[in-house]
Amino acid sequence: MAEGLSDKVKGAVNKVKGEAKDQWGNATDNHKLQVEGKLDKAKGEVQEKVGEFKDRH
Length: 57
Prior knowledge:
The chain is mainly α. The protein has helices at residues 5-27, 31-56. The chain contains two helices and no strands. Helix 1 packs antiparallel against helix 2 (31-56). The N and C termini lie close together (9 Å).
């Protein structure tokens, strides 16, 4: 059951990091940072889904 925990934690960290980058990029009008943040959030979503999948199988 804990096999997917690592992926879920990594996913959560990437989502938080991505949200911070996205918000900072928005506040500073830095479009590159916003894009990086959105990519980190997407990566985090995928990692969480992988973790959920591992937990179910």
